[in-house]
Every structure is written in structure tokens, then in C-alpha cells.
């Protein structure tokens, strides 16, 4: 492990009580190693659901270790430098990477150093502005891998945040599928129309082969169960922090032989793990971001210095915001 460095760069820190600040973040010491890179950040993205839980101090003690971000500084509940949607330009390191834009699972910080293996150069056709969606796309990919959708499946996605929208967008590209996105917020209709996905404010028929729950709200799980047909699979992609969730496992749950399964991006789906590395999965996520219609998922942008106030607003609760992008230059 690299020794701590005395060199610092401005970073965003969550205190764990609903406040945050811009304060020094440590740069890891490379010691002149050839397999490290230095990054000047161009953009980062706010992952509203998870970062709001961190910001408000709602990470359960049992998850303190499992919830650590790859380059987190500090410990839960805070102060903690947390985040994982950073796009920067390589300013130092191996010659073949210098000057290139790359994605890294790094918190909100102006400048940082990481092992070269931790960055993925952006493929042709993917702008740095859109590349902040890479971590969300990676989560959506893993959810589809866990779900094993089939040609012609009738698929519902309950909850249309960024991950839910991306799950629906990916599922729609499978031949013959009927994909319905469900979210009570009418502002989602225009976004989903851009993505080519049908939107409904409330649940519908219970004939679905596959249902994804991505709303982050316990009531959404009840909706997901109600949409499921006989032998259907429900993929639970929401994470509730310390919130207790009641699941309607009485009634017809057993007679319909439903399968309720969790999906979490921290591990590669077991079906893919023998052949796919984390680096492979991230490269796939970035390659899928060439479609400019995905820009519809970026619904706001702010300067880095404004992030404490922006995060406080985003962490208040439901809003029309999808991905909020932070600019550094």
C-alpha cells in the first residue's frame, strides 16, 4: 500500500449529518512509480441515492466496510470523502495515457493520483460530459446479467432514476421485449420518451416475466411484486440503508412461485464472473455510452465549489433530478 502523501487537493467531504464542505483531500504518493497516473478532474457525477444516504449519515454500521468506495478517505459516518463517478484528463503517468480523458471510480476532488489500472480511457464517441454515467451503466449491466432476460420477455422497471432508466434502455434493445417503465413522477415521461421506453405513472397488469425494482422506496417493491406473473423474477436493485422494508410475501407470492433476488454492483454476477473482470465490465459500460440520447439523463450541472449546497438540496428527498454533473474547469 502506498504511503500517505503530504500533498493535497480540494475535495468534497460529507460530514454524515446532512452537511458537507470543500476541504483538503490527500493525493496518494506514487514514489515515481511507472504504473500510476495523475488526473486533473473534468467532471464528476452525483449518485443521488447512495450519496444522499452517506451525506445524511444513514449507512448502517454493519455496512461500513462493504460500503467503502474504492478511493474513499475517512470513515463512516463521517467526515468522509466519498463518490465514484469521476472523469479526468491524464496529466502524468505512462506515455500512452497522457493527455487522454479517462473514467475512474474516484470521489469528488480536483486532482488525484491512482494506479494506472484504476482508470479506463474513454472510447471514441464518448464525451467526458456523458462519461460520468459510466458507474450507473455498470450497475444496470450487472442487474441485467443477474436477471438473465430472454427474447420476448415482458419487462417492467419500477423506479426511474438514472439506474432504472438505463436498465429500461438496455432491456428495450433485446429483440421482442415489451418494456414498461413505472414512476409516479410525470417529469420522467419526457426523459423515457427520449430513450424510446414507454412510461406509466402506476402499475399495470400482472403478466410480467421480469420486474426490476430500482426506486429506492419500500412501496416500489410492493408495486414490483404486484406486476409479476406466475414464475416471474423480481430483481431488487434498491438499497435502503437503515430503512426497514416490509415485503408482501403473503397472498399469492408462494402460489405464483415468484423469485425475489438482490443485485448489487459490488460483485460481478456469478454467471459472468468466470470470464469477466471488473475492468472488462467498466470498458463495456463506457462503450455503451456512445448514444447521445443518454444525455437526457443529465438534468443539471454545477461548479465544484457549489457542491456542498448542491448536495444538501439533492439529499432532501425526491425531485426531478436524475444525474447532476459537477464541472471543475
From TrEMBL:
Family that this chain belongs to: Belongs to the zinc-containing alcohol dehydrogenase family.
Name of the protein in its database record: Threonine dehydrogenase
Annotated region (Disordered), positions in chain: 1-31
TM annotation in the entry: none
Cofactor requirement: Zn(2+)
Coiled-coil region list: none
Molecular function per GO: metal ion binding; oxidoreductase activity
UniProt keyword terms in alphabetical order: Metal-binding, Oxidoreductase, Zinc
Gene3D superfamilies linked to this entry: Medium-chain alcohol dehydrogenases, catalytic domain, NAD(P)-binding Rossmann-like Domain
Amino acid at each position: 500500500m502506498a504511503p500517505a502523501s503530504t500533498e493535497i487537493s480540494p475535495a468534497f467531504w460529507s460530514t454524515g449529518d446532512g452537511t458537507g464542505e470543500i476541504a483538503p483531500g490527500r493525493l496518494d504518493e506514487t514514489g515515481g512509480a511507472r504504473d500510476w497516473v495523475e488526473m486533473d478532474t473534468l467532471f464528476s457525477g452525483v449518485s443521488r441515492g447512495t450519496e444522499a444516504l452517506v451525506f445524511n449519515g444513514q449507512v448502517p454500521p454493519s455496512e461500513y466496510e462493504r460500503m467503502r468506495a474504492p478511493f474513499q478517505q475517512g470513515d463512516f459516518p463521517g467526515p468522509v470523502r466519498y463518490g465514484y463517478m469521476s472523469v479526468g484528463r491524464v496529466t502524468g503517468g505512462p506515455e500512452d495515457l497522457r493527455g487522454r480523458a479517462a473514467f475512474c471510480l474516484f470521489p469528488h476532488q480536483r486532482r488525484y493520483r491512482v494506479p494506472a489500472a484504476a482508470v479506463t480511457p474513454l472510447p471514441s464517441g464518448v464525451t467526458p460530459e456523458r462519461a460520468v454515467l459510466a458507474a450507473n451503466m455498470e450497475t444496470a449491466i450487472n442487474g441485467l446479467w443477474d436477471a438473465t432476460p430472454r427474447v420476448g420477455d415482458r419487462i417492467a422497471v419500477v423506479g426511474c432514476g438514472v439506474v432504472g432508466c438505463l436498465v429500461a434502455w438496455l432491456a428495450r434493445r433485446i429483440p421482442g421485449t415489451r418494456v414498461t417503465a413505472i414512476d409516479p413522477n410525470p417529469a420522467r415521461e419526457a426523459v423515457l420518451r427520449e430513450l424510446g421506453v414507454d412510461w406509466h405513472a402506476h402499475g399495470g397488469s400482472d403478466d410480467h416475466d421480469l420486474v426490476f425494482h430500482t426506486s429506492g422506496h419500500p412501496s416500489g417493491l410492493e408495486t414490483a411484486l404486484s406486476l409479476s406473473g406466475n414464475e416471474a423474477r423480481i430483481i431488487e436493485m434498491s438499497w435502503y440503508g437503515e430503512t426497514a422494508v416490509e415485503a408482501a410475501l403473503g397472498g399469492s407470492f408462494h402460489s405464483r412461485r415468484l423469485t425475489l433476488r438482490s443485485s448489487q454492483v459490488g460483485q460481478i454476477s456469478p454467471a459472468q464472473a468466470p470470464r469477466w473482470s471488473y475492468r472488462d465490465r467498466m470498458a463495456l459500460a463506457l462503450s455503451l455510452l456512445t448514444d447521445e440520447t443518454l444525455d437526457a439523463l443529465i438534468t443539471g450541472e454545477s461548479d465544484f465549489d457549489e457542491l456542498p449546497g448542491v448536495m444538501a438540496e439533492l439529499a432532501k428527498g425526491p425531485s426531478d433530478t436524475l444525474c447532476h454533473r459537477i464541472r471543475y474547469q
